[in-house]
Amino acid sequence: MEQRSAAPEVLREMIPFAATVGIELLETGPDLVRGRLAWSHERTTTADVMHGGAIMTLADTCGGVCAFLNLPDGAQGTATVESKTNFLRAITSGAANATARPLHKGRSLIVVETEVTREDGKLAAKITQTQTYLYARD
Q1: Rounded CA separation 22/20 (Å)
Q2: Distances (CA, A) of 63 to 40, 49, 82, 108
Q3: Where are the beta strands (DSSP E) in 3-122?
Q4: What's the Cα-to-Cα distance from 60 to each of 4, 18, 83, 85, rounded to whole Å?
Q5: φ/ψ (deg, to 5) at 61
Q6: Which residue from 3, 100, 113, 125 could staple onto 33, CB 3.0 to 4.6 Å apart?
């Protein structure tokens, strides 16, 4: 399995949507990716609760970076094929903080688990996603 590395800001710039949304990548390695998305009124739904789509975008970004950093030999990229989110607590201030770790690394798929916490450290969401590895066609 090929181990890739790049600075967090370089990896984030490879994902234009993540940069546009305001996601910060804090730590990037094959076994751990940490990211952050600050709470802002523009990212909320009713009652100033951070929108679930914003939380899912943070988790998908961190999970995708984790998958990319674990590309098997010959693979050129990844794509999310399944994502399951459980929302456990509202985020009404501060930031959403994500930690993504691989659960399974195969030849064609990787399963990544991401925990999103609030600033007080309480678990706000748990996301499990499956990413497929993309190979060039001959």
Answers
A1: 5
A2: 23, 23, 11, 16
A3: 24-29, 32-38, 75-87, 95-105, 109-117
A4: 19, 10, 8, 10
A5: -65, -50
A6: 100
Q: What's the Cα-to-Cα distance from 137 to each of 3, 71, 74, 75, 108, rounded to whole Å?
A: 22, 16, 11, 11, 14
Report the alpha-carbon distance of residue 138 to residue 136 in Å, rounded: 6
The first and second tokens of residue 64, run together, are 């995708």
At 31-64, the pLDDT tens digits run 999 999 999 999 999 999 999 999 999 999 999 9
Exposed, middle or buried: residue 127 (CB in 10 Å: 0-12, 13-18, 19+)?
buried
The alpha carbon of 17 is separated from its chain's Cα centroid by a whole number of angstroms, namely 12
Quote the pTM value.
0.92
Per-residue pLDDT at 14: 85
User: What is the chain's length?
Assistant: 138
